[in-house]
Amino acid sequence: MARRTPRTALFTRLRTPRRLTGFLKTASVCALIAGLLSPLTQATATAATASNDYCGGQCSDILPPGENGNATLAQILLNQIFGTQPDHAEDQLGPYANLATGYSGLTDAKINTFFNDASFGVASDQVASTEKPANRGDVTIVRDKKTGVPHITGTTRYGTEFGAGYAAAEDRLWLMDVFRHVGRGQLTTFAGGAPANQGLEQEFYRNAPYTEADLQAQIDNAVASNGARGQQALSDANAYLDGINAYIDASDSGRYFPGEYVLTGHKDSITNAGTIDHFKITDLVALGSVIGSLFGSGGGGEVNNAISLIAAQSKYGVEEGTKVWESFRERNDPEAVLTVHNGESFPYATKPDSPQGEALPDAGSVNQEPLVYDRTGSAGTTSATSASATAAATTLSSAKRGMSNALVVSGKYTASGHPVAVFGPQTGYFAPQLLMLQEIQGPGISARGASFAGLSMYVELGRGQDYSWSATTSGQDIIDSYAVELCQDDYHYLYHGTCTAMDKVEQKNAWKPTTADGTAAGSYTMRVWRTKYGPVEYRATVGGKKVAYTTLRSSYMHEADSIIGFQMLNDPDYVKGPKDFQSAAQHINYTFNWFYADSQHTAYYNSGDNPVRASGVDAEFPVWGQAAYEWKNWNPVTNTAEYTPASAHPNSVDQDYYVSWNNKQAKDYTTASWGDGSVHRGNLLEDRVKKLVAAGGVTRTSLVKAMADAALADLRAEDVLPKLLKVVNSSPVTDSTAAAAVSKLQAWVTAGAKRTETSAGSKTYANADAIRILDAWWPLLVKAEFEPGLGSDLYTALSDNLPIDEAPSAGHGPTGSHAGSSFQYGWWSYVDKDIRAVLGESVQGGLAQKYCGAGNLSSCRDILISTLKTAAGLTAAQVYPGDDQCSAGDQWCADSIVQRTLGGIKHGKISWQNRPTFQQVVEYTSHR
Questions:
Q1: Nearest-CA neighbor of 558 among 226, 299, 244, 227?
Q2: What DSSP designation does 544 have?
Q3: Which of 88, 675, 693, 814 has the most CB atoms less than 10 A away?
Q4: What is the pLDDT of residue 5?
């Protein structure tokens, strides 16, 4: 089956404008481009020396492909025709990519060969430009020569935020415009009707079907409930918007706005007719809803959980089926890697002794609620409907995009005595990147780091004067599903005994071909039915009664609330130590793991508005939409409730070390997604960092090496394959095909089980045959190991809860192809626990039954050898079938990372790494 191509490629089919076709066949293209180029001329200046930087030159960061995410029409045409890049569009891509083959020889002196110097300020001989946006006297934007990062310095709070908005628009205006339309479910109307665009807007509209009044209400509520900080946030946001809009006006009149506006028909390249709409404050909420949905909304999946539980009970009976289901669910697996590993317990979403209010569907009755209606033209094609199905599956699954990792070591175990941290968010790879780098210095703000484009009034992940912070997605359950009993018709439901009408929210979209997107004209309507318990996601029957299943998340209608936490993190007068950091993180209502390091301390805090559920409610399954099963003190008007206190969230100060790769946070703290078992990609960090800490003398270099080494590891090969080979080799392997495969696999394991090039730029893997064999073998062995015992129905249902595999070349799962992030979701723990059980080894939290060969070692071995022989016989072209990026059989390309185009500039592929997109390396030498 062909792998799924990136869902967000807005400009994958950029065509030459018809009016320019003949022109571009001649040398006069150069004259055309020269006439279109009209950047501002900026004088150089000397930047002030930063006196508020306590990192001692030991803070570094990186964010590929580059800071400059805007390109004029001329620059886009040059890129499309000749492959040339605008300044600073991809100058961070090479250093980032080169770490994969360069980390083995890393030293502290070489770190900034692969990272940027993240010190505050710009050295006088490194100042590339200085500007006073809109000729304001209270803010200056200095850009450095190496990366073009904006260093914004303001003498007033308004001027500082105005400058932040202006710089954001300079670097990401088109991207910001794209995502404000995504957040409103209006992408196709704005950027074209490509199936990828249809799927993207549908994915987010399901999560956040907001009206303009809803968006404004969220701002009003966030400001009203946060006192002086709320008022300051509003003032900051308005100043930031003024900066964005000032740049829009300047670039429009100067005709150096992003060329995508021409290619999508919003502006005319000859007459300059057309408009670029100003940003308004509700756009920030729309943008926030996209980012929160992508990375900070754990939960959901209760209906799918119920379906697999019913399948298990149908197979084994209620009692045994429940045991089997729970063993696969691994709610609190004793072998799972933990971020807080000191044994402290933080119970959340645990299994109740006597579940109350469960509303499990009747078998076979569940139907997904349609989102798209009235399709016309290209909205009705097979590719369009397929994109819709993928979007729905991604939205409704508990397997959210996790991503991001962190390695933090206490000063007690470092060479310098100061903590060392290597951490960052794994936000995918885009052109331009979703994040942007900046430094902001002004009254009450002092920070450098990354922020999501369009939300960069504050640094969201980065460093302050004497501390750094970062985050990983946590995924604890803040989303619940309710079964509301229907009355009168399919669009009325019982709420506290009263038949109540559902609220219909619609978004009508239509598109036509443009230069950027030649998709034929089409249209559709997205329609969501909302209840007090959230939007309707499924229809079913429960005990014969017709119901609608809704989803309610605690951050729904609260997309703006987290702004206060970020404001605090940027405030040097607020954050002076680990406890202040934790206090700031407590004001972030999205589900993240937050990490902190200064010259003396490290810290961790798990954020999110965790609702206090009614006694007896099991968060794993849907419950009745009745007062008895609602969140404690829930107010449906404001969607507020009682939340678990900060002390109940996993948190820690000065633990020996912290690792996180979206693994389990702490003992008894259940996450919504499946797969927190004995083998998790977090183990790749845990094993390496634990070894470093045991030896002592950890340095920035050794911690970067640990991260980079884990980034190339095949989790299956490192942690599961040796056990599989132990079964295979339990008797002599006499079959020549199997023996040859075993020899190759064993050699790969001995060499370190990495997916790495033979040499930098070779585009060929070392141990390529072994990698091909395991990629082919894994899905075959999992199916042969488990399906006979589970039965096809239960096996399929459990596969819907947790994908079988997520190798770099896999096109399934929530991440998709060419996205870097790999090995988060898969059946690694199931295989590991089952094989160990068959071998007679000790297993804590094992599966309820033995599956491989029904528990017989000889039969299990036969299954493994049989599937291994089949896998070994598959050609590279069969294992890597090719897609719009790669030809069939190209193993390196199948794994490669692609900067998914969100605009007109394209970049080359880089070799696979499984690491953060934005990443910091920090070791502070002193403290205020």
A1: 226
A2: T
A3: 675
A4: 32
